[in-house]
Amino acid sequence: MNIASDGIITIDERGIIQSFNRAAENMFGYTAKEAIGANVSKLMPEPHMREHGTYIANYLRTGQAQVIGKAREVTASRKDGTAFPIELTVTELKFGGMRNFTGIIRDITERKLSEARIQNLAHYDSLTGLPNRALFYDRLQQAMALARRERHELAVFYLDLDRFKAVNDTLGHAAGDEVLKAAGGRIRRRARESDTVARMGGDEFTVLLPKVASREDIARFAREIIEALSARFQLHLTGQGTPHEVGIGCSIGIAVYPGDAQDIDGLIKAADAAMYEAKRERNAFRFHDSRTTKNV
Question: What is the maximum span of the chain, computed from C-alpha positions, in angstroms?
Fold first, then answer.
């Protein structure tokens, strides 16, 4: 048992640990001497610690197994108090009229971290750390459903950085990446916790304001973003001791649901069209209007 890579722990009907292999020692931080004779609940964080005794008691009383013979993911606790995910499979052993239960335990921390990384790549932009197009559309769909149900408005900003191409052409893509990361951070810091700031690709960003009170409030936020992105950027590029200072700015198109469009694609297209109107002036914003795009 001590050459097994998985933790193997045997307990009696009362939950008292009878055996504790070397892999379990490495996993939990307890020696076998410390663990044997103690209740297995010491290996569990709350609230699982309090609930564990009821699982065995219910099984002994009813014969209905909730965990026996089924691999399941649960949270365990190390000696130092840190919680970690495990995959647990429990089997029952009957010997001399007594019942013991053996748990095969696998630490799945790395698996969970890998799953989280994959999930993050699917929903977040790898350069800026902002939500990507897919996550933005998902949140916009949810926000529109809520706005429809509660009869309030929401706003979508479509934002394009001005003079960004010049940074890439003169200083290179590494400088462009630094500007994109810094710009995304500046927008996010001006947004409310309930807002979503996303990178759509290239030098284009979107902002979802899920509940807005008035066009004046929307316009005020647009001005704050323009002000934030008009401040010059200090770029510290690898291999270059002297920082480069660059100025960009942005053009913002704004569409408001439900007035400008009733669906996601229509709302994005309306904001995008308004953004192109704003680009005629640069460092400006425009509200979408089906007849004419107007400034506020």
Answer: 88
Taken in order 238, 240, 241, 247, the sign of the CA dihedral is negative
Q: For the domain covering 124-287, report its CATH number.
A: 3.30.70.270
Helix (H, G, I), strand (E, B) or coil at 81: coil
Q: Which residue is catalytic, options 107, 160, 203, 272?
A: 203
Q: Could you say which DSSP state residue 290 is in?
A: S
pLDDT score of 251 more than 70: yes
- Taking the C-alpha atoms of residue 210 and residue 134, their distance in angstroms, rounded to an integer, is 17
Cα dist. 269→171, 231, 249 in Å? 32, 28, 22
DSSP-derived 3-state class of residue 195: coil
Q: What's this model's pTM, rounded to 2 decimal places?
A: 0.69
CA distances from 43 to 3, 53, 108 (A): 21, 13, 16
Cα separation, 245 vs 253, whole angstroms? 27
Residue 149, pLDDT > 90, answer yes
Phi, psi of 247 (to 5 degrees): -120, 140
**CATH for 7-112, options being 3.30.450.20, 3.90.1150.10, 3.40.50.2300, 3.30.70.260:** 3.30.450.20
Q: Specify whether 260 is catalytic.
A: no
Report how far residue 254's alpha carbon sits from residue 101's, in angstroms, rounded to the nearest whole number: 63
| Tokens (6 digits) for 288 | 């979408």
What pLDDT is stored for residue 97 in this prediction? 75
Q: Pick the range with the lowest mean pLDDT from 11-20, 69-78, 83-92.
A: 69-78
Domain ranges of the chain: 7-112, 124-287
